[in-house]
Amino acid sequence: MQKSQQGCYNKVEETPPAAMEKLKSRIPESLTSQISHTSNPNTLAITCSSLLHFFNQLPRFHQMIEDLANKETSLFLKNKDSALELKIKGNNCFKNGDNANALHFYTQAAMEKLKSRIPESLTSQISHTSNPNTLPITCSSLLHFFNQLPLFRQMIEDLANKETSLFLKNKDSALELKIKGNNCFKNGDNANALHFYTQALRAAPRDVDDMGKNLVATLYVNRAAVLQKMGLLVESLQDCNRALAICRSYSKAWYRRGKANTSMGNYDDAVCDLKVSLCTEQSVSGKRQIEGELKLIAVQHNGKDFPPNVANYKDSVTNDQPQQIQLQCVSSETKGRGMVSLTDVPQATLLHSEEPYAAIVSKHCRETHCNFCFNELLADIVPCPSCSMALYCSQDCQIHARGLDLQHDTKSHEIGVELSSDLEKYVASVTEATVNDANIKQNAEHRHECGVNWPAALPAEVVLAGRVIVKSIEQHGKFGRSSTIVNLDLCHNYIQLNSEVKLELHISSIVLLKCLHNCYGSNVPLNGDTISQCVLLLSQINVNSMAIVRMRSSDTSGPRKSSGNLTTSTVEQVRVGQAIYLAGSMFNHSCQPNIHTYFLSRTLYIRTIDSVAARNPLELSYGPQVGQWSCNERQSSLEEQYAFVCCCTGCSQLNISDLVISSFRCSNLNCSGAVLDSHLVNHERRKVNPFHGSLPLQIGRLELDEVKRVASLLCESTGSENRIEPGFCLSCGAYRDVEASNAVVKKAELGVRRLEDSSQLSTNILSDALRSLDLLRSVLHPYNKKVAEVEDYLAQTFCSIGELQQARNHCQASIKILEKLYGHDHIVIGNELVKLASIQLPLGEPAFEKSRNLFKETPIELFIRTLELKDQ
Ligand SMILES: C[S@@+](CC[C@H](N)C(=O)[O-])C[C@H]1O[C@@H](n2cnc3c(N)ncnc32)[C@H](O)[C@@H]1O
């Protein structure tokens, strides 16, 4: 990303000389001249007094003095660690040209400082006694206090003032980048040429001229040339279309389009493109070149039929429509609202699909995924026309995100020459806007964020709240007429939040509304009522927003990924965005869900995993699932994030997965029973009704003979909690020293960590890791999740060095364990089988069938198809 010419954001990272330079640049010309040229010892008192008077009016000056002289906010005092750390992180990002993350850290540092200035009494009121009813009072008091702080005023100025934005377009830097791109192109360095042209497009203002042509159009045509050289013909064609949408009479764009169409075998279109190019070209040499190209097509294909036209190539669109299943929202005392179906629903039925009320790309995916549809960005990135921050995969997405108002009116860009009626029709068909969606204005979620710093500086969920508020006030037309700015009717967890979070929500809400107020004026009133609505909205986002995930294409030769608790089950998934779905928010959680969610573009899809009887709750997993984490971990996570104690079947009835997932192996080598530590035992004992109903069912599903025998024993004995004793095998009762076993696990983990941390893989490190796996196997139960994770990590490692047979063996070992933990037909097993298939394909082994049968028409199925295509 380009460093802005405007200098860097916020005094937090400003060194005193830099801040002084800024102050200097603000002094009026007349005063500067008076001081510089005419002042002398006799007039010094006058010039000094004038300068003092001027500085006293500048918030930046007050802030600088505050930063320099106030002991309380000194970064060198104790307890300022986090502000200082954040500042250092910001500086590092800034040095690397990563303005967006630099802003994020500087703002967090400034927020920390703000927090430290709030009087103790107010902090305590917010943290300990505030509730939804008293929120308007605490919000109003905090706003009143902040309004008096120069630090706060300066922060808002830095965040919301367009003039000082780091994301403004900048013609000079666009031209500089264009030259760099041209040089790379001349030297045959296509990858860098592509990079520089894209960066130039990010920086280029929409309506500036570069040697008589629109700069943006020129850059698109230049990039089209690179893309064509790289063999990316569809992308090249798209860039030509983008240039022509701006300037219809751009001869070079028609010429380049003609070349791309020729390469794709679209000769009819190529001839039309070149004819239009010929009519619009001014120079004689240019005309000759185009005529040469036309002749070439004619000679090459004289008398032959042109191959089929592939210009109308489109991505295969999945027309997934939910079946006509009637869903109903019902209420229960323990879970609040939830969803049921009025009829029986078969397995794998698509129940629901929904567009988000508001959505936002994850910060770490801003540069790699489309900021509207969240698909991965390809080579022909389309930047926002008004700021240098947002990136899109297509013009369509860009228009949806920014609205139509800033698009070039193609009709006003007349072609300027006489064309035959056929060619005129052709020009119109190429250059007319293709987006005809009535919802475009409503969806223009990025418009209010364009060209200011705060969307990059504030956390994603706060920016998402901003999108919800703007949509809400635009939808309900309540501009300036009401103090209700948002009311989504979703549940929230404000009361259960810890004191620190409550305070942070107050601060974030005031900062966000102040920034929106800057843009919308009195249409976003700033008072205790509106701020408290924002605080509640953020608490609603906390418990209702969904993470939009995408499959990561598993490149077997790619870098190794770090292992960890989630590795084996979510390795193919990347969290690309976060969204609020209003109806989707009505589905409650179960650790043994009967429905699952997936996303295509921004659309949420919900499908049944099992058949579900009429009026039974339809429940998805909010993250934790049986087989993924132990019961204890699931419950803590749900309590912490969603503020409820889960009583689903997985958490209230004994199941095999929870018994073995973190257990040790029996010290008797002939027994495959499980040994639990005291922590796990206590948890399992707390499960209600452990020995009735569900247990035999679980056993049947898991087909785990040895543990089945153990569990049957437990079933048979009445009141047999005593049989679950820490350190004793559940099957044969043999003793294992759990503490000593834990020490072995820790040692083995060190060996695996060395492998994870190594940038250069050596035989020693790999052998060490394999020995560590053996150690783990010697003390942990064969179906312990940790063993599966290490197997999976080793599979990735062997993939990365091309030892696919080893990779396949470890991957299969991992899947074998996961099948026991999750059950054979769980979606996680589908993910794992896809991964296995991606290893087996290059080995020439048959794959896929098993996974295909599991998950018809889900993204996994699409992914399998992609793998097959890649292989052909
Ligand atoms: C996305 S909302 C689901 C709809 C919510 N029940 C409502 O009434 O609006 C998430 C919240 O629902 C409640 N919830 C969801 N699943 C639950 C469960 N299994 N047991 C208890 N409460 C649950 C929790 O309060 C959680 O924070």
CATH class of the domain at 169-312 and 383-451: Mainly Alpha
Bound heterogens, unique: S-adenosylmethionine
What is the average of the pLDDT values?
A: 83
Percentage of residues in strands: 5-15%
Count of runs of 4 or more consecutive helical residues: 36
Percent helix: 40-55%
Please mark out the parts with pLDDT under 50 across 5 or more consecutive residues, or reply none.
Answer: 1-16, 75-80, 305-318, 554-571, 688-704, 715-722, 851-857, 863-872
Largest sheet: 4 strands, mixed
Shape annotation: globular
Radius of gyration: 32 Å
Pfam family, one: zf-MYND
Domain SET: 325-623
Keywords: Metal-binding, Zinc, Zinc-finger
Protein name: Tetratricopeptide repeat (TPR)-like superfamily protein
